[in-house]
Amino acid sequence: MSEKKSFHMSAEEFRRQGHAVVDWIAGYMRTVEQFPVLSRARPGEILASLPDRAPRTGEPFERVLEDLDRLIMPGITHWQSPNFFAYFPANASGPAILGELVSAGLGVQGMLWSTSPACTELETRVLDWLVPVLGLPERFLSSGPGGGVIQDSASSAALCALLAGRERATGLRTNREGCDGRLVAYCSTQTHSSIEKAVRIAGIGADRLRQIEVDSQFAMRADLLAQRIEEDRRAGLVPCFVCATIGTTSSNAIDPVSRIAQVCREHGVWLHVDAAMCGTAAICAEFRHLQAGVEQADSYCFNPHKWMFTNFDCDCFWVADRSALIRALSVLPEYLRNQASESGAVIDYRDWQIPLGRRFRALKLWFVIRHYGIEGLQHHVREHVRLAQAFADWVRADERFEIPAPVPLNLVCFRLRAGDDANQALLDALNAGGELYLTHTRLDGRLTLRLCVGQTQTQAEHVARAWRLIQDRTATIAPRG
Ligand SMILES: Cc1ncc(COP(=O)(O)O)c(C=O)c1O
Fold first, then answer.
1. 3-class secondary structure per residue, the chain
2. Out of 3.40.50.11690, 3.40.30.10, 3.40.640.10, 3.40.50.300, which CATH number does the structure's domain 108-359 have?
């Protein structure tokens, strides 16, 4: 009998190459600091280095790994470098990477409980674990009317929350008939752009997103929110959704969730709280005051893929009333019907998200929580905050700089008093050097540098070196007067 023709990688070959890949990743972890943090690739350079046609015949896997070093690595910006201080982090860790690998190995598509019960039930359990761990309200637990689900991103979580709020406000009419142009959503001028995107996708329209003014600390003015909702009401419009942020992207501003919640309650408007990065800090009791009022939210999300050592993608999203979310998102074709779903005894997470299919993301979060324990996570979060606060103190003590926003946690916004050109020159010089990577924002219309401490391996020496580099470059750009 002739052997069946196959091009597949055998289990034995997979074992061999798998070890090589894990060795490669471990080597990368050890040597990541040797690379310039921000890739130096020019636009189109990586594309031009890749063959313009796919290979007709398969190649030895060793060659693929060689090309990873030769062709791909020059185009990598090293988010896992301890000298990565840009944006918000997207940190990772050994247990998370291994969880991701097992998830890929199992190859589960967990759209329904019945398509892999463990994929659903582990997710439910881990999200329930996190409720008390983060000081979130009991109404988010799956044992009550609420529950948690893992989304790919905070953007998707916000869109789901908005759709639930939209349908609650219109008694599910919008799902049937479409938007009538009267729905209105609210956020602040500092809210992440994902809310504007969600408002566009949901058919509410960017013109119907009210960006409420902020106070001197860049936090939403709850009094202006109330005023605007009342005006809109009087004009015959239908307020349906407010997004409050715990830790805005520009400056880590903390919106006054309690006061915003009161306004939302008075007007029956869905309150979503976005704590994309800062939510992780609530694992430490001393930082929980920043989320005061969250117990009144209709929905809440944070991203373990930012600051909780769980590689992208992983956003935890909770709702106080899961039926509102499910009613907004559930569509049931015949081919998805099954006994377990019909029994009402199981969760089908496909009804809690935009796509049908879903990955087994809970595995990596489970690996992370079990590896670190709550104590381990608290230790590293506290350390990051301590390092950021030390950096802020150094900046405050240097009269050439100013800090234009409060520093509640691990993000420091700072700028040279010398003005935008000097700050741009400083940022460019720092990033061109390759020893670290910072990004910028604008606060009060002025160019402002941001340094966020949240990378898994960042330690005191990295932050101290960042400050030394900043001072060295500043000496040439804005010498002391
Ligand atoms: C406050 C806030 N919300 C939402 C997002 C969007 O996150 P994601 O990439 O998970 O959609 C970010 C990203 O940095 C953010 O800072």
1. CCCCCCCCCCHHHHHHHHHHHHHHHHHHHHHHHHCCCCCCCCCCHHHHHCCCCCCCCCCCHHHHHHHHHHHHHHHCCCCCCCCECCCCCCCCCHHHHHHHHHHHHHCCCCCCHHHCHHHHHHHHHHHHHHHHHCCCCHHHCCCCCCEEEEECCHHHHHHHHHHHHHHHHHCCHHHHHCCCCCEEEEEECCCCHHHHHHHHHCCCCHHHEEEECECCCCCECHHHHHHHHHHHHHCCCEEEEEEEEECCCCCCCECCHHHHHHHHHHHCCEEEEECCCHHHHHHCHHHHHHHCCHHHCCEEEECHHHHCCCCCCCEEEEECCHHHHHHHHCCCCHHHCCHHHHHCCCCCHHHHCCCCCCCCCHHHHHHHHHHHHHHHHHHHHHHHHHHHHHHHHHHHCCCCEECCCCCCCCEEEEEECCCHHHHHHHHHHHHHHCCCECEEEEECCEEEEEEECCCCCCCHHHHHHHHHHHHHHHHHHCCCC
2. 3.40.640.10
Show me where the domains of the chain are located. 11-78, 108-359, 373-477
pTM here is: 0.96
pLDDT digit string (tens) for 149-184? 999 999 999 999 999 999 999 999 999 999 999 999
- Over 70: is that where the pLDDT of 433 sits? yes
CB count, 10 Å around CB of 233?
A: 13
**How close is the Cα of 231 to the center of ligand 1, in Å?**
30
For residue 481, what pLDDT band results from cuts at 50, 70 and 90? Answer: low
Nearest CA to ligand 1 atom 7: 154
Core vs surface per residue 149-178: b (16+ CB within 10 A) or e: bbbbbbbbbbbbbbbbbbbbbbeeebbeee
Domain 11-78 annotated CATH 1.20.1340.10: yes
- What is the number of the ligand 1 atom nearest to the C-alpha of 303? 10
- Mutation test of ligand 1: which of 303, 313, 314, 413 has the most ligand atoms closer than 8 Å to its C-beta? 303
Enter the CATH code of domain 373-477.
Answer: 3.90.1150.10
Closest residue by Cα to atom 4, ligand 1, is 154
Query: Ligand 1 centre and the CA of 276: distance in Å?
Result: 5
Q: 267-323: per-residue pLDDT in tens? A: 999 999 999 999 999 999 999 999 999 999 999 999 999 999 999 999 999 999 999
